[in-house]
Structures are given as structure tokens and as C-alpha cells.
Amino acid sequence: MATNGSTTTNLHNENPVDVTTDIDPVWMSSRTARQIYALGEVEKTDGPEDGLPQGGERSEQFVLEASEYFERLDAIHIAIRSSLAHIRQSRIAPSAINAPPPNFVPPSLGVGVPPANEEVNTGSRGLQEERVERDAWKGILDALTRLKEARERERAAEGAPNTTF
């Protein structure tokens, strides 16, 4: 709208109605009323030869078709959601789906029953670390055993008396 005294135009009236015709002023009182009036002026597309129900039967037919449409839409919706759930479940490991509780720290020694003797130092190594240490000690024992046998053979070859560590 202009404020300099020029003519004003109604920018909100998308469906202009000829005001010169004989129209009840109620239909011109608001934008919504004008739109409702304009909808009433739309020509009918159903002809009498179309065989469509008239009156109350027409409303019932619409309700039946709308209900059928929304039931079909609901079935499609449920099928899509269940399909996505199956895809999601098959592609992701169960451990990723069922996450542990917040601030959960797994035990370093793995799962097991605590020893009966509580004085035993449980340490803080995991299973793999324990295996590496066990293998290292076995290797040390094997090396010392071979070293001892080699010394005994040397002493036996020299004829010296056998002395052990």
C-alpha cells in the first residue's frame, strides 16, 4: 500500500471477484470468505452420465475410498519401516546395536571367576599379555635348559667333573 495519496491495491486478493455483480456483502467481508465464494464458482466436472452416486451415497463412497487409500498407505509405511529394520539388523553387528552402558570399561583380564585365594595379585594385564609373558618365560626356560646341556656336554668332553648351577 502506498501512503502518498495514490490509489491502493489489494495484494492479498488472489481471486478477484467482480464487485459490480449482485453478491452478498458477507462473501466480500474477508479474504477467506472471498476464496470460499470463488470455490463455489468453479464449474462442476461430473456429468449426469458419469454414473457417480449423488447426495449421501457420494459422501459414503468418498469415505470408503479415502479409508482404503489410507489403509494402503499405512501398509506401505509399515512395510518400509520393517524392511529398513531388517536391513539395519542384518548389516550391523549385534554388539554395535546393543551398546554397553555409558562409562563402561571392560575388565582388562577378560571375563572369568575370581580366584579363591584373594591374596594372589591379579595384575592389570589382559589375556594376550599373559600369553606373551608365558611364552617368554617358556622361551627363557628352554634357552637356559639348552645352555645347561651345552655346558654339561663341554665338561663331559673335557673330562672335568660335573658341576651345575
Task: Characterize the structure shown.
This protein has 165 residues and is an all-alpha fold. Among the domains are: 11-40, no CATH class; 59-97; 127-165, no CATH class. Helix content is 50%, strand content 0%. It has helices spanning 31-40, 56-91, 94-97, 127-158. The protein is rod-shaped and about 140 Å long. The N and C termini lie far apart (112 Å). Mean pLDDT is 75; it is low at 1-13.
Highlighted features:
165 residues; mainly alpha; 4 helices; 50% helix; disordered N terminus
Topology readout:
Layout: H1 31-40, H2 56-91, H3 94-97, H4 127-158
Task: Supply the helix-strand structural class.
Answer: mainly alpha
Output the helix-strand order. Answer: HHHH
Number of separate helices? 4
Specify the overall morphology. rod-shaped
Query: Oligomer, anyone?
Result: single chain
Query: What share of residues is helical?
Result: 40-55%
Mean pLDDT across every amino acid position: 75
> How many strands, which pairing sense, and closed or not: the largest β-sheet?
none
The total strand number stands at 0
| First and last CA, distance | 112 Å
Radius of gyration: 46 Å
Strand content: under 5%
> Low-confidence runs (pLDDT<50, min 5 residues)?
1-13
Quick structural gist:
The protein is an all-alpha fold. The chain contains 4 helices and no strands.
